[in-house]
Amino acid sequence: MDGSEAQLNSQSNFDTGTDELLAALQEEVAALKQGGGSNRHALRDGRLVAAVAGRFLYTFLADSELDLPNDSPVQLVVGPGAAYEATVVSVQGFDVTLAVPRNLGDRMGNHPAN
User: Fold this and answer.
1) What's the confidence (pLDDT) of residue 1?
2) Which residue among 4, 21, 42, 67 has its CA within the 20 to 30 Å range from the CA of 111?
3) pLDDT in tens, 53-86
């Protein structure tokens, strides 16, 4: 086998590996879309902390540490029939900051009366 045949085989193996990786990724995305990314996390003590560029930033306290990447799309459910598309701004320990496209009030969730 000369150098050109080895190069063709390497390219073919790369293409096959890439195709398999893309197919697996597409299956994963389809499964998440179908299942709706069913991980649910309890958040409490929601407080409006800022309004920036038409987005309202809320901080929450999570019951457990969350591993959510910044800029992840999430659905914020605040009651029966009340769900809003939101974006993870940051997660630091148990503190979670979400950006929501509308004002949901100064406080939400279970919070102690002051």
Assistant:
1) 54
2) 67
3) 999 999 999 999 888 899 999 999 987 888 999 9
Average of per-residue pLDDT values in the chain: 80
Looking at residue 8, its amino acid is L
Long-range contacts of 70-73 (CB under 8 A, 24+ apart): none
Pick the closest to residue 62 from 102, 112, 109, 114 (CA basis).
Answer: 109
**Three-class HEC string of the chain:** CCHHHHHHHHHHHHHHHHHHHHHHHHHHHHHHHHHCCCCCCCEEEEEEEEEECCEEEEEEEECCCCCCCCCCEEEEEEECCEEEEEEEEEEECCEEEEEECCCCCCEECCCCCC
